[in-house]
Fold this protein.
Amino acid sequence: MKPAFHPRLINDPFSDPGLFIPFMFQRRALLFDMGDLSRLSARELLKISHIFVTHMHMDHFIGFDQLLRLLLGRDKVVHLFGPTGFLEKVEAKLNAYTWNLIEQYENTLIFKVTEIQPGKSLVQTFTSSNRFRPVGTHREIPFMGNLLSERSFSVDGVILDHKIDCLGLSVREHFSVNIIKEGLEELGLPVGPWLREFKDALYEGRDGAEEFRVGWLDEDKERREKVFAMAELKKKIARISPGQKITYIVDMVGSKENMDKAVRLAMDSQHLFIEASFLDRDADIARRKYHLTAREAGLIASRAGAKEFTVFHFSPRYAGREEELIDEAMEAFRSGR
Ligand SMILES: [Zn+2]
Ligand SMILES: [Zn+2]
């Protein structure tokens, strides 16, 4: 099975946290957190359409400037999400520069910024054509846990306690479509861009007797076309399976309430990326700093039934000893204790 998302941590576990999530076969990506982004190429950064910042501690947010530098002078809309205080912080970042020449630019860079608060979200637009000053007053909409919902996937968030609000994040494919090669051969259909359209049609919920036109160019560059009923084509060439879910949890204290929230968010994830800042023997420091221990990270992964999990965001005090953190998390994951 080919998953639609291929998430990878941007940096090593002692450096700034961040998860880059490119989409298979599309020039598009999501980003969870934006600490130091220098390991991402310009090509990768330009794919990013939506960025979710868990909280505005420096190691999770300093990459904003790198991104802004790259995007300036391009036509682009980037959606940014963050917790309580986010609008003010984004505005302050944009305010840190002098924009007296920007109105002469031919291109427009737009940030659509959403601040998540308990029960509501505030949406504000900042555009280069207005020197990045906020456009009008923010809009307020209810927040019930969903941050973004598209045809094929959703992003959900939960507010965790890190002494400040910190967003836990999950991206979930609604379902996954695999194309059966033998089915294509049987119908005499080649692979091609039409498969993308076919998948989109499935995500749109088209089914039954509805027509679907498969078009392609044959070896003589002649245009060919066959028409099918959606249900027939789906039965012959598509295998539908549950979608992939990826969860990203950083900076949170290991209180019962927080752990329960994290488990609910991460439930049945294919891959859970979770902070493990401290060893259990330093649990008192973890508490004071509102972070998880490796054992707590493993317990969350275990209770959520994560298929795979990766611990990261290690405190520098364990430099050269990352195995201890990984072992402790794995032990808790296996034993559930
Ligand atoms: Zn952090
Ligand atoms: Zn933090």
Q: What stands out?
A: The mean pLDDT is 94. The radius of gyration is 22 Å. The chain is about 30% helix and 30% strand. Residues 57, 59-60, 250-251, 313 surround zinc ion (ligand 1) (CB under 6 Å).
